[in-house]
Design goal:
It is built from four helices and eleven strands, in the order αααββββαβββββββ. The protein is of the alpha+beta class. β2 and β3 form a beta hairpin. α2 runs antiparallel to α3. The N terminus is likely disordered.
Length: 288
């Protein structure tokens, strides 16, 4: 056990276990020596027998303590190895999940939107502050692309249309809009690629036609969130940064770069009314 501890890749837990194992081994050796020395012999007088009995008792106690240290060290090492194996198994399972063919893609999103008016009729929900959009849901969509595709051909990796849109009037100067996307725009659509491709979809375009062009999102920093799920097992969450809807296409676009989420000038069409990009501080592609 000690040899295994010393020959394993050095780490703080294993170093501590090696120290404990060394101490335990030393105690066992010392206890055995004391017991051996304390064994009474006929030539010993009464005083020597007394000291040797004491040494024998102390040796037994030291031996038992050393064995306990060895058992404790072995248990700690076993628990550490089990935790490491579980971590490796988790990584392996995740890698295996990423290699699975894409069967399903779903998405959920929410946005804080400035203003309360919407260019679509609403159906009152069970709560007084909650309403639902029940018409033209197939025009509300989300599209995912790789950054390379977004800067070039704009060929989407996937596309979904809304199955549910809820509007909550929680603010005097804005609304909370919740989206659920559970189906592709065309029946019989077969998704291509593997589930691990999820982590290459760095550009998202959320089309919200019931918001007029140039509609501003409410909060100054994080204005919403989008979560994409693949095969119901892998998920990726994107933050929606503060921006305005595109003046013509009525959508918002975001790009994920190194863990940061920024507005993205997907259509590369400046708003002719203001001679500015449709998104506030939008990231432009090199092809612009």
């Amino acid at each position: 056990m000690l040899l295994a501890s010393l020959t394993t890749t050095p780490s703080e837990p294993l170093f501590g276990a090696a120290i404990f194992a060394t101490v335990g081994g030393f105690l066992v050796f010392t206890g055995l020596c004391l017991e051996k020395w304390g064994t009474p012999k006929p030539k010993h007088d009464a005083k020597q027998l007394k000291y040797r009995k004491i040494a024998d008792a102390v040796g037994w106690c030291v031996l038992m303590f050393g064995i306990a240290v060895e058992i404790y060290t072995a248990g700690k090492l076993a628990m550490s190895e089990k935790a490491e194996m579980n971590q490796l198994r988790s990584v392996a399972e995740r890698n295996d999940l990423q290699k699975q063919p894409i069967q399903t893609i779903t998405a959920e999103a929410w946005l804080f939107v400035k203003g309360t008016n919407l260019d679509i009729p609403l159906e009152q929900g069970p709560l007084p502050w909650s309403s639902y959009i029940t018409s033209r849901l197939d025009t509300v969509s989300i599209t995912g692309l790789t950054e390379t595709s977004a800067q070039g051909s704009r060929e989407p990796a996937f596309g979904l249309v809304a199955s549910k849109v809820e509007v909550q009037k929680l603010f005097t100067n804005g609304i909370l809009v919740k989206f659920e996307f559970e189906k592709p725009p065309f029946l019989g659509t077969v998704f291509k690629g593997h589930s691990g491709d999820l982590y290459t979809w760095d550009v998202l375009v959320l089309t919200v036609p019931f918001l007029e062009g140039g509609r501003e999102l409410l909060t100054p920093e994080k204005s919403g969130e989008i979560t994409i799920k693949v095969n119901s097992m892998l998920s990726r969450t994107y933050e929606v940064p503060h921006q305005k809807t595109h003046f013509a296409s009525r959508d918002i676009s975001i790009i994920a770069t190194n863990g940061q989420f920024r507005p993205y000038d997907f259509w590369r069409m400046p708003d002719p009314r203001t001679n500015a990009a449709p998104s506030m501080q939008a990231t432009k592609s090199p092809a612009a």
